Automatic annotation (TrEMBL):
Keywords: Iron, Iron-sulfur, Metal-binding, S-adenosyl-L-methionine, Transferase. GO terms for molecular function: iron-sulfur cluster binding; metal ion binding; transferase activity. This is Adenosyl-hopene transferase HpnH. It comes from the Bacteria. Its cofactor is [4Fe-4S] cluster. Signal peptide: none annotated. SUPFAM superfamilies: Radical SAM enzymes. It comes from Paracidobacterium acidisoli. Coiled coil: none annotated. Residues 20-236 form the Radical SAM core domain.
Length: 383
């Protein structure tokens, strides 16, 4: 198991407790977006396409704590934008850790090494580094040559300093399953705690609309990648969600499982769609017409979606929803190699990587950071 036992226990007792209280819709992870600014401009990302006046806005630590307390989740993910560009990210993380929240700080790690001194290692804090595959795949995906090497340097520095480090990888059409499997080997060698892989979502705002995966192609790709696993690979995702990606089981979406809070408020209905905003988490739950969402709803925006933020909670809630769920998850945890002859054949099929028909486009993102002097480190470090 990739996550510490204390974290698994906290999540298990939280989910069972919510179910015993009879709560129909409860969240698992708060997706806290303290800003949308980024130092990358990835072709598959819909977050940094906002106008400049929105990109300049950021949540205060107090707004972050209020949102997390409202949702009451045991885990908080901090995506963005690039959270390390937030001038008070150290206060936000320290405040969440003090509240005993398990924090995944998502970062492209371009600034990780230089900002590591702002954080203290803790079992509650994990850097979740966005890496989209081996060097050339990642650099292509984030439109930045050299991005992979800087990120890996940041990961190594964080691990050496005693931090928990996980990775998250978004896969698009044209992903090479053999390369992804080799990438897992590289990450295990570097010493990351666990990897998470998921298909990208068709963001309407994303500049590259051509390479998002449909459901059938996603299942085929993930069957090839996640079957015949090596024992050395460790994953940071629910075994049930990974079986869903491999096409071994069906889940309906749980859009309230990972609710997103940003400078706009609580986003309806999920991290990916923007059908309005609510001022409070209760308002989000009470005023969203949830029947309009999920693949089974017929909503075309949900048709191909298999993303982590919609279905990881479905997997976790399935695990703790019945004795059968617990047993199936235990089986998936202990017998996790998934021997599959057909999946081996898929690995031998030719792949046409995206960058063989699309050249890497170097995008220089212009990012304005709010510089301040950090007096805590004694020598006036500008962050
Ligand atoms: S299926 Fe995807 S896009 Fe639709 S509500 Fe669920 S997470 Fe959001």
């Amino acid at each position: 198991m990739a996550v510490p036992v204390s974290q698994a226990w906290t999540v298990a007792t939280y989910v069972i407790g919510q179910k015993l209280k009879g709560r129909k819709r409860f969240p698992l992870v708060t997706m806290l977006e303290p800003l949308f600014r980024c130092n990358l401009a990835c072709a598959g990302c819909g977050k940094i396409q906002y106008p400049a006046h929105i990109l300049k806005q950021e949540l205060t630590p107090e707004e972050c704590f209020k949102a997390v307390e409202e949702a009451g989740t045991p885990m908080v993910s901090i995506p963005g934008g690039e959270p390390l560009l937030h001038p008070r990210i150290d206060e936000i993380v320290a405040g969440l850790v003090a509240r005993k929240k398990y924090v995944y700080m998502c970062t492209n790690a371009l600034l990780l090494k230089e900002k590591l001194h702002l954080f203290k290692p803790s079992k509650y804090l994990s850097f979740s580094v966005h890496l989209d595959g081996q060097r050339e795949h990642h650099d292509f995906s984030v439109c930045r040559e050299g991005g992979y090497d800087i990120a890996v340097e940041g990961i190594k520095a964080a691990i050496a300093a005693g931090f928990r480090v996980t990775t998250n990888t978004t896969l698009f059409d044209g992903a090479d399953p053999n390369s992804v499997r080799a990438f897992f080997d590289e990450l295990m060698e570097i010493g990351v705690e666990g990897v998470m892989v998921a298909p990208g979502y068709t963001y309407e705002k994303a500049p590259d609309q051509k390479h998002f995966l449909g459901r059938a192609r996603s299942r085929r790709l993930f069957r090839a990648i996640l079957s015949n696993r090596k024992k050395s690979w460790k994953f940071n995702a629910s075994p049930m969600y990974m079986e869903f990606l491999m096409g071994k089981r069906e889940f309906t979406c749980t859009p309230w499982g990972m609710p997103a809070y940003s400078v706009f408020g609580w986003q309806k209905p999920c991290y990916l769609l923007q059908d309005g905003y609510a001022d409070t988490f209760k308002e989000l739950i009470d005023t969203t017409d949830w029947s309009n969402y999920g693949t089974e709803s017929g909503n075309p925006k949900c048709a191909n979606c298999m993303v982590h933020s919609g279905y990881e909670a479905s997997g976790v809630y399935y695990t703790f929803g019945s004795l059968r769920g617990l047993l199936e998850t235990a089986m998936a945890t202990f017998f996790d190699t998934y021997q599959d002859r057909g999946a081996l054949d898929l690995l031998n099929e030719p792949v046409k990587p995206m960058h063989s028909f699309n050249p890497l486009i170097q995008i220089e993102a212009t990012v304005q950071t709010t510089a301040r002097i950090d007096t805590r480190v004694g020598e006036g470090t500008t962050v």
